[in-house]
Amino acid sequence: MPTSTHQLTFRMNIIAKITPPVELGKTPDGICMNYPIIGGEFYAIGNDQSKIKGVVLPNGADFFRERADKVGILNAIYSLQTEAGQVINIQNTGLIRNTKKGQEMVEQGIWPIPESEYYCRCTPVFSAPEGPLFWLNDSIFTGSVTYPAADTVDIKVFELT
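and the corresponding structure tokens:
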């Protein structure tokens, strides 16, 4: 059996600010709600180890869907802008699954819940123009997502190497 030599390399931390959701309601795909992304900040480590900083632009949303089994499907589409003015688009899909206790807390209107009460992972795909971040187009990424406050999403992004 082949052995894997893949590793995860930390590449980026995105802190996005969101507003309360715009609720669409029940659809054939589940309960849908859109969480507008209104700003934030990020820092990244380039493939040449350069440090890159910037902001989350207030132009996106997480088009969230809750399945019948209470698992949440993330589908966030938004943009980052570096301090140098370069814009990077992201489509970040993933899921959130609560523990039994976490689901009970959510149903009682408690949010955010402790990190120990949910599992949330994502797979961001980047669209970067020519320049120092062009390499983002040519790698596979995964991430962990936490919610330190009701209006804050913390995404740690890793490159699969």
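(Above: one complete record from the training split.) The helical segments are 100-107.
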